[in-house]
Amino acid sequence: MHYEIDGVWHYTCILQPQKGLGFVMNRRGVTLIELITVMVIISVLAALSIPAFGTWMAHYRLRTAARDVVSAMRTAQMRAVSYNLRHGVAFDSVNNQFQLYRDSGGLQADGAINPLPKGVTYNSIVGLPTDGPGGLPFISFFPNSTASASGSITLRNSKGKDKTIQISMASGRVTIQQ
Question: What number of other Cβ atoms are within 10 A of residue 81's Cβ?
């Protein structure tokens, strides 16, 4: 129940007797103390979950970057087979990006430059020839679906976790190692 005295609202609880239970409060809302208590609990839970969210986000970005790189290589491989032209992907470890290329009388960019997600970098690129544009590491795929080299690309996130992408020259198979 609430009522006004001199412009100030007052709230009261009505106690009603219950059979065998004593008195029970009959309320229509929450008090300020209860509201503040709930807000404090929510704030503490949010503060505790923020570090876990940061770790999860770094892992998510690394997984996304690995999938994006593999997708670009598989796209190059499919285009090589479809168009009967050599296609490939160049990896720029200085700027943390990669780009698809086609070889139709020289390497030509085939699409936009793809940056790695924030916090993800190339940790190592092993076994790939540096015959791409500007001497960048480059993997080519031929019309018979094979690759120009066997090698690996290791991506690292801001938390120091790695994902390695393996390329098989004979089969052209591209896989993400766990």
Answer: 16
Q: Which of 121, 126, 134, 129 is nearest to 94 (CA)?
A: 121
For residue 115, give the amino acid letter.
P
pTM above 0.85, yes or no: no
pLDDT confidence of residue 167: 97
- Looking at residue 178, its pLDDT comes to 72
Interatomic CA distance for residues 157 and 44, integer angstroms? 28
Q: Which two tokens stand for residue 64?
A: 């996304």
Whichever domain contains 158, its CATH number is: 3.55.40.10
The residue type at 67: R
Q: How open is the CA angle 116-113-83, to the nearest 5 degrees?
A: 120
pLDDT tens for each residue of 17-73? 555 555 555 556 778 888 899 999 998 888 887 776 667 888 999 999 999 999 999
- Classify the phi-psi angles of 20: left when phi > 0, otherwise alpha if psi is within -120 to 50, otherwise beta: left
Domain span holding position 62 = 36-177
Are residues 79 and 102 in contact, defined by beta-carbon separation less than 8 angstroms? yes
117 DSSP β-pair partners? none
Query: Is 12 among the domain residues?
Result: no
